[in-house]
Amino acid sequence: MPTSVSPYKRDFTVCGWRHGHARMKSTAHRTRDIERQAGYLKPEHCAPPPPRSGADTMWFIRDGCGIVCGVITWFLVFYAEFVVVFVLLLPAKNMAYSLFNGLIFSTLAFLALASHAKAMCTDPGAVPKGNATKEFIESLQLKPGQVVYKCPKCCSIKPDRAHHCSVCKRCIKKMDHHCPWVNNCVGENNQKYFVLFTMYIALISFHALIMAAFHFVFCFDQDWTKCSYFSPPATVILLILLCFEGLLFLIFTAVMFGTQVHSICSDETGIEQLKKEERRWAKKSKWMNMKVVFGHPLSISWLNPFVVPDHGKADVYQYIV
């Protein structure tokens, strides 16, 4: 009988509700407490999930820490935009230089915020709450000996590779991690937007640092009153804060971007890597894994946060593990 190595507590049952298959022996379960009786699933205690109405169609996590982190993210991007425009570009004598760099920076900043909003307000792949009903399990048409798992926290039958998030209070398909900066989990439905968010933040951070360096070089031997609309002390403070912000977020988002790309190419989420879970899914090429996340086929839409990726031939998640 196949086993699962998720670190999260889960209940299980077998097809036909037989108790004969309830005993499982595996060293992989040492970090998890599995109930020994299939009847513990108790589907009669799970009410069907309520139908979604128009008022709650938008996904948004009401987590205080995540909301604060999201607001800080937008504030820092707007701060960088303010300093770049009013300190680095508008006082510059070269109009072409100002227009070119202003257009590039503003476009990247807009794409970064759009990616952040999409990552925050997109359902990452939440399993319906309360679907651990007898009718739903019977509809799976399980064969004798096949096992399904129930999350005792949200009363859901969990697909393979799904994990429960204590912040979102839901089981998330192909959950990578919960990121407070986007106030959401990173899962199969919003990983593209999170990767784009980290990429665009890294790009605008690098761009801001380059422009700040040029500004320091050109204004070092000149009158600082001609290099900024603000006083020299205020200009220096604004630039130092911009450089600190740019360097900090360049390192953070560049590392996160590389980690996410590696996770996508290896088809192994952050949780699966951390817990060293046994690989039970079909191995695909790195290119196919990229297309599963960003869409089929390769196009400019990969870089567009407003385009929902077409997963094409992506494997449908199974409830059998």
TrEMBL record:
Domain Palmitoyltransferase DHHC: 150-276
InterPro entries, per the entry: Palmitoyltrfase_DHHC, PFA4/ZDH16/20/ERF2-like
Catalytic activity reported: L-cysteinyl-[protein] + hexadecanoyl-CoA = S-hexadecanoyl-L-cysteinyl-[protein] + CoA
Annotated transmembrane regions: 67-89, 95-114, 193-216, 236-257
MF annotations from Gene Ontology: protein-cysteine S-palmitoyltransferase activity
Listed GO CC annotations: membrane
Keywords recorded for this protein, A-Z: Acyltransferase, Membrane, Transferase, Transmembrane, Transmembrane helix
Pfam families membership: DHHC
Coiled-coil stretches: none
Compartments, as annotated in UniProt: Membrane
EC numbers on record: 2.3.1.225
Enzyme class: transferase
Domain remark from Swiss-Prot or TrEMBL: The DHHC domain is required for palmitoyltransferase activity.
Family as reported in the entry's similarity comment: Belongs to the DHHC palmitoyltransferase family.
Full protein name: Palmitoyltransferase
Organism whose genome encodes this protein: Takifugu bimaculatus
